[in-house]
Design a protein that fits this description.
The chain is an alpha/beta fold. Helices cover 46% and strands 18% of the residues. The strands form 2 sheets. The protein has a 7-stranded mixed β-sheet. Pfam families: MMR_HSR1 (PF01926), MnmE_helical (PF12631), TrmE_N (PF10396).
Length: 459
């Protein structure tokens, strides 16, 4: 693909800040910059070493627009692998906007979302899994999520996919020789060898696929709801958990005022406590939402934390919520263990496993660590040992692996039946294609557009 237009966008987040950055990429970058920039030294940008900051003014004719630092990164040694100019101006809304407008008046087009990164991909500087890792780095909610994304950006997944595809290619080469020269006296690959290779590949794909559940949680957060009837200690618990571990609070754009996601960092796991009406703001909203609403909210949750008051006997309301926990990842907290105990634990065990029940005192801050351990073991089930492990965090990659896995199963069954080589070849070609979805090798243009439209403008 040949890219011949030049694009520009504001790269920094909108709002007041120390500096704002405008980025230009493409053939005309340098000439546009020379046109609108006057260095204090009087020299042209091209007379400086590339990748150095040059001090001067952005001018529109004789009029100074802003005082800036400009960097020229000559392709291919730049983010997009094209000629890139970055202008560091004063932060805020107006400087960046004026400079961008000036640039756009010089036959430069406003970049689409993610277009800089898309160009880095199209120009072959990074593969698709690395491009996708960039957005994950930006959106990471915990150190661990960040590290996993960073590894992917450095090429951990790319290398693995390359390696797997190489193995597929080897098998394909053998098969092709066997197909082309079947009449002649060439050494043929045996069905036994084929099966060994296929099974080896299957194991590797499966292993990778199995990291996806934890990986998704690492990236998107574990959607968690806290349920229980009034006064059992939900707010106290939440405060206990939030106190030390609050990660990030985000307002979801486009929704009405009340929806807030609290990201709590539990042992590197971003717990997305979905708070449909803002526990933080109105104190006791969970009880206002009521039992009906609780049931609704935990239908969409990855984890339900149910709180019970252990100083009281179970009520019908408690039992009703318990009865709805089936098939959910659940932790039941018996709160207020500092008081005299009246709750009937054996009744609770009719609804949930014993090891999902944890005794705590939110008031005395007892048992909170156990909650953390429990969540950790539920999420990771030992599948992620540390952040340097390769983890599939992206559902698109997961889908591609699943398809590759299905094709390898087809291949194995064809091999077991001693079907002709060209049948088996079809399956291996499919594996090769599906794995290529992950690094972008076999992805179509319209899918690319969808992927990059999730990026920010200027990235
Ligand atoms: P919510 O209505 O479920 O959110 O419950 P709150 O967190 O508002 O707590 C209700 C009452 O129980 C408050 O007076 C808390 O101080 C008290 N409480 C919460 N946790 C404990 C606990 O572990 N022990 C004792 N003794 N009281 C608690
Ligand atoms: Zn409350």
């Amino acid at each position: 693909m040949f890219i011949d237009d030049t694009i520009a966008a504001i790269a920094t987040a909108p709002g007041e800040g120390g500096i704002g950055i405008i980025r230009i990429s493409g053939e005309r970058s340098l000439s546009v910059a020379e046109e609108i920039f006057r260095s204090m030294s009087g020299k042209l940008i091209k007379d400086y070493k590339t990748r150095t900051l040059v001090y001067g003014n952005i001018v529109d004719g004789d009029k100074v627009i802003d005082e800036v630092l400009v960097a020229y990164m000559k392709g291919p040694n730049s983010y997009t692998a094209e000629d890139v100019i970055e202008i560091n101006c004063h932060g805020g809304f107006i400087s960046v906007k004026k400079i961008l407008e000036l640039i756009l008046s010089k036959d430069v087009r406003l970049a689409e979302q993610g277009e800089f990164t898309k160009r880095a991909f199209l120009n072959g500087r990074i593969d698709l899994s690395q491009a996708e890792a960039i957005i994950d780095v930006i959106k990471a909610k915990t150190d661990m999520a960040h590290e996993v994304a960073q590894n992917q950006l450095e090429g951990s997944l790319s290398n693995k996919i390359k390696d797997l595809r190489m193995k597929v290619t080897e098998v394909l080469a053998h098969l092709e020789v066997a197909i082309d020269f079947s009449e002649e006296d060439v050494e043929e690959i045996t069905y036994q060898t084929l099966e060994e290779k296929a099974r080896e590949l299957k194991n590797e794909i499966k292993k990778l696929y199995d990291t996806a559940e934890s990986g998704k949680i690492l990236r998107d957060g574990l959607k968690t709801v806290i349920v229980g009837k009034p006064n059992v200690g939900k707010s106290s618990l939440l405060n206990s958990i939030l106190g030390e571990n609050r990660a990030i609070v985000t307002d979801i754009p486009g929704t009405t005022r009340d929806v807030i996601e609290e990201f709590v960092n539990i042992k590197g796991i971003p717990l997305k406590i979905v708070d449909t009406a803002g526990i933080r703001e109105t104190e006791d909203v969970v009880e206002k939402i009521g039992v009906e609403k609780s049931k609704e909210s935990f239908n969409s949750a990855d984890l339900v934390i149910m709180v019970l008051d252990s100083s009281r006997q179970l009520s019908d309301e408690d039992l009703e919520i318990l009865a709805n926990l089936e098939n959910k990842k659940t932790i039941v907290l018996l709160n207020k263990t500092d008081l005299e105990q009246k709750i009937e634990e054996d009744k609770i065990r009719q609804y949930v496993d014993n090891d999902s029940i944890i005794r705590i005192s939110a008031l005395k801050h007892e048992g909170i660590e156990e909650i953390h351990d429990k969540i950790e073991s539920m999420v990771y089930k030992g599948s992620i040992k540390n952040t340097s492990s390769l983890v599939i965090t992206n559902s698109r990659h997961k889908d591609a692996l699943l398809r590759a896995y299905e094709s390898i199963n087809d291949a194995i069954s064809a091999i077991e039946q001693n079907l002709p080589y060209d049948f088996i070849e079809v399956d291996f070609k499919n594996i090769w294609d599906y794995l290529g979805y992950i690094n972008g090798d076999t992805v179509k243009e319209d899918l690319l557009d969808t992927i990059f439209s999730n990026f920010c403008i200027g990235k």
